[in-house]
Design a protein that fits this description.
The protein has 15 helices and 9 strands. It has 2 domains: 6-192, 3-Layer(aba) Sandwich (Rossmann fold), CATH 3.40.50.300; 214-472, no CATH class. It is α/β, with parallel strands linked by helices.
Length: 477
């Protein structure tokens, strides 16, 4: 038994074999076509974790002449363990049986079998021949029902027939499979053969650790993006003939373009982290993410209501006040907590959604300099987080088997107002995000700003990691 478990993915042409492999190994570049017969040779796809192959899936051509192959196996009188090798030796140069020789090769070398079929169609005689061939190999085997059209009227008939030939039967929609579904499939493979339990335990453990690490890196990318953008500003000297309003407008556009570029880069980094080709990943046609980050639609759909924004500011203000109470050893009797919360709350409520600070800086000889930024609106933080979470949801739910001819999944979010993730958080969670925003936008010259900022970022990043983990396991937002 090989130290690295291997599985041959076999079946009839155009039933979804390559889609299953692409999803399991996270490879957007495996050729997938609606035309049958695209795969003509067996090709191995190892999964590497920490630079080491932990499992190998082999994509194989579809059966070409299963009825002849079954007849040959029934007439074979030699050692059953050598039957596949003898068939390959006799027929390797027969073009009419080239696919059978290719798909049987990894099975003859000890691979387990994953039989993929399209259960949206009825059972045929040729399917029974394929199942009997695979049963006669004696290899551990699982059947995967991949309903390509979504039609499940024949599903129970398939299950009843497959149970006669396979150790396990599972429904697995390759184009829509989530990480959790892929993990459950690996757990099912684990019990096919006792000799595979230990190596597949290592594979599953490595998958879980790797996924958690990706979310940790994803949260770190988000924090790095916010740290950069929350500090951004644009400024220049104003000439005597220029109007301040025109200069301010140009600087605002310049800063907005920089923020857009940073957000695009962040979303691309998330695609890379989850091994998607940026060129093949597309958003649903009517996704609100196609709207500009500064558009009215974006600010309507994402972010908090004014009431929730105010309570978030109040929660952050109360936290700051509590720190003052603690420093006073309790002698303040809680008055700082009450006042801190009230002032912050009303400030957020009545300030509205002004995004950028604008300053006119006096200079010598009557000249002046205009600066736009940094961002002053806490609402922007919740909007950008909601956009990030929706982008993340699409990335982790975008199957590596998805191609141009497949439907792109949507969410329940696309057409509803104020339904971003941040809207569902508790008052304390929104307050914690507000603390992070205040720590990152306060004057760096204030006492203990760096220390409090580091603590706020640590709490914020940990919360982001938890949210990403939750979103990844959710079928919808």
């Amino acid at each position: 038994m090989p130290s690295v478990p291997g599985f041959a993915v076999v079946g009839h042409p155009n039933e979804g074999k390559s889609s299953v492999v692409a999803t399991l190994v996270e490879n957007d570049r495996i050729r997938i076509s609606p035309r049958p017969g695209e795969t003509t040779t067996a090709k191995e796809y190892p999964i590497y974790i920490d630079g080491q192959a932990v499992i190998v899936f082999t994509d194989t051509p579809g059966f070409q002449n299963p009825v002849y192959l079954l007849g040959w196996l029934r007439q074979y009188e030699g050692d059953e363990a050598e039957a596949l090798e003898h068939f390959i030796g006799e027929h390797r140069h027969d073009p009419g049986l080239a696919h059978e020789c290719e798909l049987l090769g990894p099975v003859a070398r000890g691979a387990g079998i994953i039989y993929v079929l399209d259960a949206s169609r009825p059972l045929r005689r040729v399917d029974v021949a394929e199942m009997e061939i695979l049963r006669r190999t004696g290899r551990p085997r699982m059947a995967i029902l991949n309903c390509k059209t979504g039609e499940e009227g024949f599903l129970e008939d398939w299950k009843n027939e497959l149970r006669k030939y396979f150790h396990m039967v599972r429904v697995f929609h390759a184009v829509r499979a989530t990480f959790a579904e892929r993990l459950r499939l690996l757990e099912s493979l684990r019990v096919l053969d006792q000799d595979w339990e230990q190596p597949l335990d290592r594979v599953i453990d490595a998958f879980v650790r790797n996924w958690k690490q990706r979310n940790t890196e994803c949260a770190a990318l988000l924090c790095g993006f916010l740290n950069r953008v929350l500090a951004m500003s644009a400024s220049r000297n104003v000439k005597e003939a220029e109007r301040d309003a025109e200069v301010e407008a140009r600087l605002t556009r310049q800063l907005e373009d920089q923020i857009r570029d940073e957000e695009t880069r962040l979303h691309g980094q998330v695609c890379d982290l989850f091994r998607h080709d940026r060129r093949s990943f597309v958003l649903p046609e009517h996704s609100v993410l196609r709207e500009d980050v500064f558009s009215d639609t974006t600010w309507t759909v994402f972010g908090l209501s004014k009431t929730k924004l105010a309570t978030a500011a109040a929660a952050a203000g109360a936290a700051a006040g509590a720190a003052v109470d603690a420093a006073a050893l309790g002698h303040g009797l809680g008055i700082f907590t009450v006042l801190g919360g009230a002032v912050a709350g009303f400030g957020a409520f009545f300030r509205g959604e002004t995004l950028l600070r604008t300053r006119v800086l006096g200079m010598e000889m009557g000249s002046r300099r205009i600066q736009v930024g940094p961002i002053s609106s806490a609402q922007w933080l919740f909007i950008i987080l909601d956009r990030f979470f929706l982008q993340y949801w699409h990335v982790v739910h975008w199957s590596h088997a998805m191609r141009d001819h497949d439907a792109v999944p949507g969410t329940g979010l696309e057409s509803r107002a104020k339904q971003g993730i941040s809207d569902t958080w508790s008052r304390a969670e929104r307050g914690m995000c507000m603390e992070f925003f205040k720590a990152r936008t306060k004057n760096a010259e204030q006492s203990n700003a760096a220390e409090s900022g580091a603590f706020a970022e640590q709490r914020f990043q940990h919360f982001m990691e938890e949210e990403l983990q939750r979103i990844a396991s959710s079928s919808e937002l």
